[in-house]
Amino acid sequence: MRYINIGLIGLGTIGTGVVSILTKNSRLIEDRLGIPVRLAKIADLDIKSDRGIEIDKGILTTNAEEILNDPGIDIVIELIGGYEPAKGFILRALNNGKHVVTANKALLAKSGEEIFGMADRKRAAIGFEASVGGGIPIIRSLREGFVANNIESIYGIVNGTGNYILSKMTDEGGDFSDILKKAQDKGYAEADPTLDIEGIDSAHKIVILALLAFGTRVSLEDVYTEGFSDITQTDISYAREFGCRIKLLAIAKSSGDEIDIRVHPTMIPQDNPISRVNGVFNAIRVTGDFVGENMLIGKGAGSFPTASAVVGDIVEIARDMIRGSEGYRLPSRSYLPERIKDAKIKDISNITSEYYLRFSVLDRPGVLSKISGILGDRSISIASVIQKGRRENEAVPLVIMTHSAVERDIQSALSEIDRLDVVLEKTVLIRVEDGVKGGR
Question: How far apart are CA 348 and CA 327, in angstroms?
Fold first, then answer.
């Protein structure tokens, strides 16, 4: 074997980064691998625009078939994103005996069973480190580094756009819409930011992580998903008073024979390292039964961090190719295919958490006792109360932090509380992770 031949489909931001790394660090990669990695063909609908890097025009094509049907290409990199034609390209590459590297988290979350199944049948390798966490090696850590452990929980910040917006709102002030516009101007947020701000992108990623962590099939529809566009400076300010910050967290926990999996804005204490991870950075905490807690932090998006993960997968697959163990050495889903099981999903109504509740109430005597009475009727214990300002018979905020409670009890209580004539708006609820120490 003289070369590892690569076919790249998609020459966008990440694809351009891959070409840059393979070009600039070609000697380093060869020193670590033993043989050169060669870009044999690049397919993209636009092969005329200047990407700011030197590319041999002879390897450019607008026809992906030239890559998929070329027997000389060993590894196909899919970086076009979306569902189709990406899914078709990946399945055809695998069916043609080629190995695949992809950053396509949405596709793997939706059609992973079919794609991984094809890879298993064809004894082909599939690398997807770049699908979660950008340059953070979380996939490799779960598949290899933590393989001796029962994973108890995995949670963290897995969307850089959301973290950038919430960080700016917390540290610099400003409303959600203004910070979103700035993020779009800087290229941190898409023109249509729905996937990021509504938690859908994070849900794609936690589906992949749960598969690797627990060996369970989880569909995207199983993930309780809640965005953060309704978070206001009022809630950020109160969070600060409780010694917390608000982050958009993706959470997966093994709970007996159930998987608790969800995405939503979460208050976490400031002494939790994840609370101090700001900007476009991601942070993921993995807890295993023997290894304990481990934190991985790094750039979760961007051309070069993501491209670095793609090239890492190329080298890993190439090493196995050289030794003839590709598709055999490491199960793509961490667990052997026959040991993957269907997940029993814990309904959001059954989770236990602490809760931040912000009520908009009329400033009248007895309001707090009414609300606390309804909470008490459902065995919900109050840890702290903040009530500021007096504007008799006008709207004022009333903030309650609860002790640990069951979600269905909280929702039942809020349903009754929000019907009170002294409550003027729907109550704001934010779940709390890791407990609030020393609340007021």
Answer: 37
Q: What would the mean pLDDT of 354-374 be, rounded to a whole number?
A: 94
Specify whether 354 is located in the same domain as 219.
no
Q: How far apart are CA 138 and CA 41, in angstroms?
A: 29
Domain of 254, in residue numbers: 138-299
Q: Are strands 405-406 and 224-225 parallel, antiparallel or unpaired?
A: unpaired
Residue 368 parent element (H or E): helix 367-377
Helix H or strand E segment including 160: helix 160-172
Q: Taking the CB of residue 404, how many other CB atoms lie within 10 A of it?
A: 13
Report whether pLDDT(389) > 70. no
Interior/surface letters 212-240, b for 16+ CB within 10 angstroms, e for the rest: bbbbbbbeeebbbbbbbeebeeebbebbe
Q: Are residues 229 and 285 in the same domain?
A: yes
391 and 331: one domain?
Answer: no
| Domain C-terminal end among 284, 313, 340 | 340
Task: Give pTM, 2 decimals.
Answer: 0.94
Q: Which residues are catalytic?
A: 205
Question: Within a domain: residue 208?
Answer: yes
Same domain, 149 and 63: no
Statement to judge: residues 248 and 165 lie in one domain:
yes
Q: Is the pLDDT of residue 211 over 90?
A: yes
**Per the domain annotation, does 365 fall within a domain?**
yes
Question: Average pLDDT, stretch 248-275?
Answer: 94
Distance of CA 362 to the CA centre of its chain: 40
438: in domain: no
160: alpha, beta or left, given left = phi > 0 and alpha = psi -120 to 50?
alpha
Count structural domains, the chain. 3
Whether residue 239 contacts residue 199, with contact meaning beta carbons closer than 8 Å, is answered with no
Give the chain's length.
440
Residue from 264, 265, 195, 261 nearest 222 by CA = 261
What is the pLDDT confidence band of residue 1, given thresholds at 50, 70 and 90?
A: low
